[in-house]
Amino acid sequence: MAKYLGPILTATVFFPLLAFLFTVPYMIYSYRKYGSVLITRAVLMYAFIYYLICVYALAILPFPDAKTVVTQRTRVNLIPFSYVPEVIAKSTAFDWSDPGSWLPAIYSSGLYEPLCNILMFLPLGVFLRYYFGLTFWKTALIAFLGSLFLELTQLSATYGLAPFVYRCCDVNDLIDNTFGGMVGYWITPLLTWFLPSRERLNQVSYQRGSRVSYVRRFVAFSIDWFVDMILELIASVLIPLEGTLKYLLEGLLVAILYHGVLVILWHGRTLGKALVKIRLVDDQTKDTASPRSYMLRGILLWGVLLQSGSWLTLLTEGVPMLSNFSALIGMAGIVVYAALLFNAVYNGVKNRPQMFYEQQLHLIQVSTVQTKAMQPAAQKSN
What we know:
By secondary structure, this protein is mainly α. It has three domains: about 60 residues, no CATH class; about 120 residues, no CATH class; about 160 residues, no CATH class. The chain has 18 helices and four strands. It is elongated and about 95 Å long. The C terminus is likely disordered.
């Protein structure tokens, strides 16, 4: 049992890092498909990721020491069910009337490892059927290909990273793993009866996605901020100035072109908004707003509010009596950031869809996710 616990503990250590790297792509995918990130669906996805990490760790760990003496053990076995004669020969210790003899008999007879291989891929069948909604044959094929990948990884000495082939590439593992995935598919209803159906998860996801949450807006905002920084770096080459004025002109240029002109031409979208499928529209007509509203929002938010500290610093640089307080004045931008954050949190709690500057410009952010998929789901649930 210890040889299994070690790899699982290693997988547990690496899981938080991989889960963190997966979070933003998963959120973008969920927002694009459903318009929302459902907690139940997210927990299941992270559980699936953790399971895959554990399976991979069990296949390649523990890693051998380069000083380990290589034995003449067979590294490839292409004989199906080659362990059956050994199981039959050692099955005399098994006694149906004595449950205490079952586990020792299974372990000593050579049946322990095949059973572990079956159990290792059993959750895969459950995830593929319940979470991904795959058919039996697709589940069996993926289980087979997944097992084949692990066996070839072992045959390659983990892509040449190990000093020698330290695991046996066994066709029996391929058979057992594939069968485990098939068993998992068959017993999925027994293991997931307490969970909501996929149709119900989809229905709730689409319903929540019809309204743009502030978390969804923050994901779009973060993407746009990253794009904004790249564009400002490019603009810094084009503007032959120095100091605070140069920084402000860079930000203002990007605000006009990216957050203004692009939004006008793309009917209320930026790259971040397009990725999570939201757009800015007129709050009355729910259609494309006026170019003036788009441009004013871009300049006000990205050219003024988010650079308020730099603007105050620039305006007070020529005032001698305020020169000693320039750093403090520059920190005033933090107050503006805090105000924007408070406005977003307060609106989120109160279910108010517009920030204060959007109210003044009569703009609102709406979801562009197509919710037609809700109709067949609702019919099935009924």
